[in-house]
């Protein structure tokens, strides 16, 4: 699912100020039936995160927090069973899970003598049963299960997706008989930067239109869509670091990427949306 | 001095005697007594003869060479028009010498010169001063002092006021009619990139001598009938025009006639057809109007005189009495290619007062004289010429003047060309490759702290980021290294706090330097002889052309005249600028340490020993390898030494020598205390003694070339220069005796030394030291009978790679062909002879152990490959031995440590006590076992080495030799391994045990779940289970539907729920894609799901009335969950959440409330052993504490009692429950 910049922009355009709910996702899928759902979800998630990063600060002023808390109290005062917190989040265009965190933090400040630690709050968000107030627990839980971009469940899903694709890649490598060192082995050896896999014997990836192939020393699996923002961050934090240590390598964005970002091939960073099919390995018997 | 020359010219003195007189201070018995008498009176002046002669020749040529202005003051601009030609008036030795090769400070006139200089990068063009990324591509001084030294011009500051200075021309407005600077669009600038511009035009062979060039196949217009385009390669093999088809013949003849006709015309009017412009803004050198005057042997004015001077001059060159033979060759070639002569004005021809009779008239009165003289000298220097590269030989052989004046020499050159394989090509620079990460040297264990480790991690990335940016941008106009990268580099350097981090960074820096800059050919000279030379390129096939073009575009294009200053071309510029921008004292110190170490290591590397005369092809292959290795080592050494010199002398470098004697003395006093960064003198002496000068001297020259002005005056370095001078004098090329240095080895040394002597920081007088010590110069070479010097290690490719400036000869000749005149660059200096003293001391000799000597002796008569094999095997086996010990003995000990630790933990409880203390206890128990390592290591080496040696040596190796080789390998490997083991085994065990302890203690920590990860599924599993991420997200959707808000039409079908639980089972059984966090979340979600089932909160899709799940279905789903919890989850399932107030509270919202499912679930949990009765009771008990609506609390209490009262018998519970519930009956009746 490699998109041109223009295709990507068209999708991103549709995602402005869309709340991260089930319903929004359903509509998005109807709008772009030809794109894979996973790709759409990944783009949606990334766009939403960018949006949240931009607006994060304004929701965390003490005035905003106070006003949200009051609105929450009023709401549940009228009807504790209504989705007060979720609606509040959607209304102010903020992620429900993050809104739940704000309110929970504020609630705990009011009811506990010492300010709550981050780990306590995280633990309560993971398991709202620990929240001393039953109504709030339900409200928080509702926010978390209805948020498809943030929250402990989403985090877990993302982690699981990443893990699954690493396993997938590992299987493909084993299938192709390519010996490798994985992240854990590399860490055990004391490598300071660890791609998902380092090939013990490099391979050459052939590209349809290029005369020469590209040497691959390492492979990094990314179970997300490669947009400009995340790709640049990855380049800086990971891919170039791998290049600096291990030479040229391959990044697989399983959910696709913006075509124009694949511009460092000659320098030694290749992008693919799947495991490459045309691979040349070193022949041991040159007869 | 003139007297000597005078007597020579009068033939009162034989040339041989004169040369003997110059070379040896003492008179030889061969000398005629009369000559001796004449010379002895001149003895004090003896050492001034050579500089006098050189200056004399330059001056003489200045009088007649055409572009020399009649009087400099009249046309200062035009004096620079032909740099390389003396521009100044004869003013006596000192003044004139400095002007021999006028500066290359750009003038509008200078722009017309040979392309070499324009591309040299030294030239500061009229554009922005820092054209290419700040400090200029290669320049050295800029950025240091902020002031640019005009080295490029080869001018000392004191001569800047010379009337021939072209700087006046700088302010000239651009001359738009100048075809060179403003060529018509689409035209090929003449001489650009050193090629002939005429190649695309129909063939215009000027003479038969030009036929060496490729056949004139054109691709823009069809070739004239002569050459079938399919035949170029055939013609190339007999390129002398002899094999030309008849059609060409006639063309050639036609042209020949034309030529003769024209030369006849020229002779009738000897004055140049175009007058020399007098004004400074005119450009006499424009190729458009420049035609070379034909030279005629018949018109040479005073043959005998010229012959004599040529002979003396040649003898001086042959005896290495001149500082730089290639500079002299360049001068001679300039004479050969002189275009026209100026009708000398009377004033110039008038004898200066004090000149003596036969020197009265100019030596060169015409172009004919110049060419005659040049050819004479070239004849004497044929031996050197024949060793130049093929391209130069071809150009020489094709030179029609040379043919005209000496057909014999031309014949010899042609033969040399045909026999030569010495093609030199510019190779592609290697692209940047990063230094790879090696755990042995780069992992955490090599750093003092986590912080240092992570800091270095970041630094490595910043370093490459900076490097990449430099690669991308340094050629952009206006980009500046310091501005672009300086602050980032300094920020990075400032983080290097610990000494250990510095050494890590320096290692990275040095490795990257070697990787990127080691040799222009990357793999080391593989392109030798493969590519056609520049002038042939257009005749070659398309691919070849493309390749040449590419080379030309990427290769450093010019070295900038025959004597360029030291530069940092290409990637070297990055490293230089990095050092300057970093300006970190610590970094520089560490870098010097590291460079010194590496230089020592490489300099002492055992390089090829002479092969016993073994002529088969096999050893030839070996020999190629040896040569390549030598070239690699030599180039690496030169690079490292250059940077060592750069850093070591950086603090002292300034643009000017100290102004006064007093200041100089005080600086000398200070500096003489400073110990050199590397004891280069000792290494030089060692190298000379071991006959390894061919390896040592080239890098030493690189090192010294970056010295500051004071260095050569320091005793230490003065003695080095003395040694080098002695060496230079001793490398007489004509002497080729057995066991002497090979010709090309000598030529390389002469070239690099000659270059060194021309560098501005080296005092001018240094070369003409009093020769008193020269005779005493004896090198003690007993230590090694066969050194590297006597092996043919240097080939033309290496020579030209090390000394690209030799290529200027070819450029000069090529520019003659292309119609524009060559131009010199670089610095050529006047020579002021003085006498100095000083001699280096001999270093003490080292002694070696007897065994080592025997081993040495053993190898001496064996092929070098044997020694390398043995050393290699020993090195590898030794290293593997250590790894083997680590994997066996140490690993065993670590396992012991782990089990001991486990015991400890069991006896002392979970905490097990202080980790540091634990470690001490374990180490004290285990470290003594390390003593076994030596025994085991010995065994390992004993076992492994012999086989490896045997496998690597040829089969016919005699048994005894094999046996000895194996024994030596075993010995060396054992020595290496045991040395390491005895020093490090305890520390190694400690380190590994420590890691194991912290691992074990961590594993005891709060994340036992993580250890259950990836327990794998059965072998038969084909991993068709759905992905966990997918399932979590499906379940999440169900949860969100249940919790709401939802649209009225939204819901889940019972089948879907069943399917989800089925998938959950598959995932938990396959586990291929399951990770611990996912499983934990699945467990939690399954509990949530159960609670929702119990509370009947899941909105069900189906017929409009049925919005609730059927009881039976709910029970079936709960049973599925119970079974998953019991059998399939490998992480703890948070079942207590079923009784959390929040989940129980879900029941409160349902009307009518139904408790049966909850009771059912609780009973099953107990039944299946998933939860204890007590546990559930506790949970139920704590539920009472929560605040509930009155009736709900009541029902809850009933449930509690019921649960307590009933013994767990499966079936009857349901009925009992129904009995308890007052409204239960009605509900059941409804369903």
TrEMBL record, chain A:
The keyword Nucleus applies. This is CDAN1-interacting nuclease 1. Keywords: Cytoplasm, Nucleus. Pfam families: TPD (PF14811). Coiled coil: none annotated. It is found in: Cytoplasm; Nucleus. It comes from Catagonus wagneri. InterPro entries: CDIN1. One of its GO terms (cellular component) is cytoplasm. One of its GO terms (biological process) is erythrocyte differentiation.
TrEMBL record, chain B:
Residues 75-84, 106-118, 147-167, 183-192 have a biased composition (Low complexity). Residues 63-224 are annotated as: Disordered. Residues 135-146 have a biased composition (Gly residues). InterPro entries: Codanin-1 (IPR040031), Codanin-1_C (IPR028171). It holds the Pfam family Codanin-1_C. GO terms for biological process: chromatin organization; import into nucleus; intracellular protein localization. GO terms for cellular component: cytosol; endomembrane system; nucleus; plasma membrane. It comes from the Eukaryota. Residues 789-903 form the Codanin-1 C-terminal domain. This is Codanin 1. It comes from Catagonus wagneri (Chacoan peccary).
């Amino acid at each position: 699912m490699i998109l041109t910049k223009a295709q990507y922009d068209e999708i991103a355009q549709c995602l402005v100020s869309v709340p991260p709910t089930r319903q929004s996702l359903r509509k998005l899928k109807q709008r772009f039936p030809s794109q894979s759902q996973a790709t759409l979800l990944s783009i949606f998630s990334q766009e939403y995160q960018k949006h949240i990063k931009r607006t994060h600060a304004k929701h965390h002023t003490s005035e905003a927090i106070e006003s949200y808390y009051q609105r929450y109290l009023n709401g549940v005062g009228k009807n504790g069973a209504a989705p007060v917190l979720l609606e509040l989040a959607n209304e102010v265009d903020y992620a429900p899970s993050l809104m739940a965190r704000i309110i929970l933090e504020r609630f705990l400040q009011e009811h506990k003598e010492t300010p709550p630690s981050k780990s306590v709050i995280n633990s309560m968000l993971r398991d709202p049963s620990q929240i001393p107030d039953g109504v709030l627990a339900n409200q928080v839980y509702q926010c978390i299960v209805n948020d498809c971009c943030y929250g402990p469940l989403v985090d877990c899903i993302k982690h699981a997706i990443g893990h699954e694709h690493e396993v997938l890649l590992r299987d493909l490598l084993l299938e192709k008989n390519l010996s490798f060192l994985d992240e854990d082995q590399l860490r055990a050896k004391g490598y300071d930067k660890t791609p998902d896999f380092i090939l013990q014997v490099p391979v050459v990836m052939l590209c349809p239109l290029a005369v020469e192939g590209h040497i691959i020393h390492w492979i990094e699996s990314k179970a997300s869509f490669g947009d400009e923002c995340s790709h640049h961050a990855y380049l800086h934090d990971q891919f170039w670091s791998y290049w600096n240590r291990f030479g040229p390598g391959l990044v697989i964005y399983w959910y696709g990427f913006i075509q124009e970002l694949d511009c460092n091939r000659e320098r030694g960073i290749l992008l693919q949306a799947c495991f490459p099919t045309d691979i040349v390995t070193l022949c041991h018997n040159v007869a | 001095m003139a007297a000597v020359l005078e007597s020579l010219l009068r033939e009162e003195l034989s040339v041989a005697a004169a040369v003997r007189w110059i070379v040896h201070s003492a008179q030889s018995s061969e000398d005629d007594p009369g000559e001796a008498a004449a010379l002895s009176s001149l003895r004090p002046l003896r050492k001034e003869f050579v500089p006098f002669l050189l200056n004399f020749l330059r001056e003489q040529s200045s009088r007649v060479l055409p572009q020399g202005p009649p009087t400099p003051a009249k046309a200062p601009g035009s004096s620079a028009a032909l740099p390389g030609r003396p521009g100044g008036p004869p003013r006596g030795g000192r003044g004139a010498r400095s002007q021999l090769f006028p500066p290359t400070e750009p003038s509008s006139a200078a722009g017309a010169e040979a392309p070499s200089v324009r591309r040299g990068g030294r030239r500061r063009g009229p554009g922005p001063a820092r054209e290419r990324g700040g400090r200029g591509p290669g320049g050295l001084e800029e950025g240091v002092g902020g002031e640019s030294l005009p080295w490029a011009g080869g001018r000392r500051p004191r001569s800047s006021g010379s009337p021939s200075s072209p700087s006046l021309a700088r302010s000239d407005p651009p001359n738009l009619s100048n075809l060179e600077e403003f060529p018509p669009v689409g035209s090929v600038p003449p001489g650009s990139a050193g090629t002939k511009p005429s190649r695309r035009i129909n063939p215009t062979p000027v003479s038969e001598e030009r036929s060496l060039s490729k056949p004139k196949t054109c691709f823009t217009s069809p070739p004239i009938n002569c050459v079938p385009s399919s035949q170029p390669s055939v013609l190339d093999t007999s390129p002398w025009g002899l094999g030309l088809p008849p059609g060409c013949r006639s063309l050639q003849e036609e042209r020949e006639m034309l030529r003769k006709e024209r030369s006849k015309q020229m002779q009738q009017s000897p004055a140049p057809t175009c007058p020399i412009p007098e004004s400074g803004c005119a450009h006499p050198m424009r190729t458009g109007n420049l035609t070379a005057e034909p030279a005629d042997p018949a018109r040479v004015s005073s043959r005998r005189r010229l012959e004599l001077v040529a002979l003396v001059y040649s003898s001086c060159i042959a005896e290495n009495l001149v500082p730089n033979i290639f500079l002299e060759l360049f001068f001679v070639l300039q004479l050969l290619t002189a275009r026209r002569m100026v009708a000398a004005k009377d004033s110039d021809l008038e004898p200066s007062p004090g000149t003596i009779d036969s020197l009265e008239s100019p030596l060169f009165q015409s172009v004919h004289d110049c060419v005659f003289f040049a050819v004479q000298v070239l004849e004497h220097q044929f031996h050197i010429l024949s060793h130049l590269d093929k391209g130069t030989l071809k150009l020489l052989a094709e030179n029609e003047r040379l043919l005209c004046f000496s057909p014999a020499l031309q014949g010899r050159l042609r033969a040399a060309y045909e026999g030569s394989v010495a093609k030199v090509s510019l190779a592609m620079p290697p692209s940047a490759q990063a230094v790879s990460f090696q755990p042995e040297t780069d992992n955490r264990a090599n750093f003092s702290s986590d912080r240092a480790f992570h800091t270095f991690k970041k630094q490595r990335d910043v370093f490459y980021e900076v490097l990449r940016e430099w690669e991308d941008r340094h050629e952009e106009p206006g980009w500046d290294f310091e501005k672009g990268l300086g602050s980032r580099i300094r920020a990075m350097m400032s983080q290097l706090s610990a000494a250990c981090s510095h050494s890590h960074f320096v290692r990275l820096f040095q490795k990257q330097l070697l990787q990127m800059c080691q040799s222009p050919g990357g793999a080391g000279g593989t392109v030798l002889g493969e590519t056609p030379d520049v002038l042939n390129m257009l005749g070659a096939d398309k691919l070849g052309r493309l390749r040449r073009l590419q080379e030309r575009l990427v290769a450093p294009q010019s070295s900038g005249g025959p004597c360029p200053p030291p530069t940092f071309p290409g990637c070297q510029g990055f490293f230089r600028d990095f050092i300057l921008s970093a300006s970190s004292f610590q970094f520089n110190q560490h870098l010097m340490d590291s460079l010194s170490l590496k230089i020592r290591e490489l300099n002492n590397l055992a390089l090829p020993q002479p092969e016993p005369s073994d002529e088969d092809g096999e050893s030839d292959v070996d020999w190629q390898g040896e040569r390549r290795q030598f070239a690699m080592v030599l180039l690496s050494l030169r690079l490292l030494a250059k940077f060592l010199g750069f850093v070591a002398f950086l603090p002292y470098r300034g643009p000017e020598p100290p102004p006064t004697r007093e200041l100089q003395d005080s600086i000398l006093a200070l500096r003489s205390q400073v110990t050199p960064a590397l004891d280069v003198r000792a290494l030089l002496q060692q190298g000379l003694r071991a006959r390894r000068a061919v390896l040592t001297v080239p890098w030493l020259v690189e090192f010294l070339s970056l010295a500051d002005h004071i260095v050569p005056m320091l005793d230490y370095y003065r003695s080095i220069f003395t040694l080098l001078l002695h060496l230079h004098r001793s490398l007489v090329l004509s002497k080729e005796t057995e066991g002497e240095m090979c010709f090309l080895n000598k030529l390389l040394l002469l070239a690099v030394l000659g270059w060194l002597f021309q560098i501005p920081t080296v005092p001018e007088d240094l070369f003409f030291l009093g020769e008193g010590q020269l005779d005493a110069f004896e090198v003690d070479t007993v230590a090694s009978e066969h050194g590297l010097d006597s092996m043919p290690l240097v080939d033309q490719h290496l020579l030209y790679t090390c000394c690209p400036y030799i290529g200027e000869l070819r450029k000069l000749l090529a520019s003659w062909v292309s119609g524009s005149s060559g131009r010199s660059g670089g610095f050529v200096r006047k020579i002021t002879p003085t006498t100095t003293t000083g001699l280096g001391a001999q270093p003490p000799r080292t002694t070696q152990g007897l065994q080592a000597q025997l081993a040495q002796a053993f190898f001496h008569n064996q092929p070098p490959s044997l020694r390398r094999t043995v050393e290699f095997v020993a090195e590898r086996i030794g290293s593997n031995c250590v790894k083997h010990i680590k994997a066996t003995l140490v690993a065993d000990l670590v396992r012991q440590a782990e089990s001991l630790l486990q015991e400890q933990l069991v006896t002392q409880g979970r905490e097990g006590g202080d980790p540091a203390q634990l470690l001490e206890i374990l180490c004290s128990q285990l470290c003594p076992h390390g003593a076994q390592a030596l025994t085991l290591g010995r065994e390992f080496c004993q076992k492994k080495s012999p086989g490896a040696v045997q496998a690597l040596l040829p089969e016919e190796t005699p048994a005894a030799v094999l046996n000895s080789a194996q024994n030596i390998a075993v010995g060396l490997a054992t020595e290496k391994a045991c040395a390491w083991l005895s020093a490090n085994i305890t520390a190694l065990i400690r380190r590994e045990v420590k890691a194991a302890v912290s691992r074990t203690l961590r594993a005891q920590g709060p994340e036992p779940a993580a250890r259950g990860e990836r327990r794998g599924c059965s072998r038969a599993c084909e991993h068709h289970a759905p992905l966990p991420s997918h399932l979590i997200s499906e379940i999440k959707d169900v949860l969100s539907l249940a919790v709401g808000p939802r649209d009225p039409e939204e819901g889940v079908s019972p089948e879907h729920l069943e399917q989800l639980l089925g998938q959950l089972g598959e995932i938990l059984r396959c586990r291929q894609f399951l990770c611990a966090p996912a499983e934990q979340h699945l467990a939690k979600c399954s509990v949530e799901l159960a609670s929702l089932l119990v509370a009947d909160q899941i909105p069900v899709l189906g017929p409009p009335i049925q919005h609730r799940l059927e009881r039976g279905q709910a029970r079936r789903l709960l049973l599925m969950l119970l079974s998953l919890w019991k059998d399939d989850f490998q992480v703890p399932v948070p079942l207590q959440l079923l009784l959390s107030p929040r989940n129980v509270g879900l029941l409160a919202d349902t009307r009518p409330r139904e408790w049966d499912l909850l009771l059912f679930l609780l009973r099953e949990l107990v039944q299946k052993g998933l939860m204890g009765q007590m546990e559930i009771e506790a949970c139920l008990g704590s539920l009472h504490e929560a605040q509930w609506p009155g009736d709900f609390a009541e029902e809850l209490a009933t449930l509690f009692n019921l649960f307590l009262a009933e013994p767990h018998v499966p079936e009857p519970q349901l009925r009992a429950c129904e009995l308890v519930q007052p409204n239960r009956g009605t509900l059941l009746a409804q369903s």
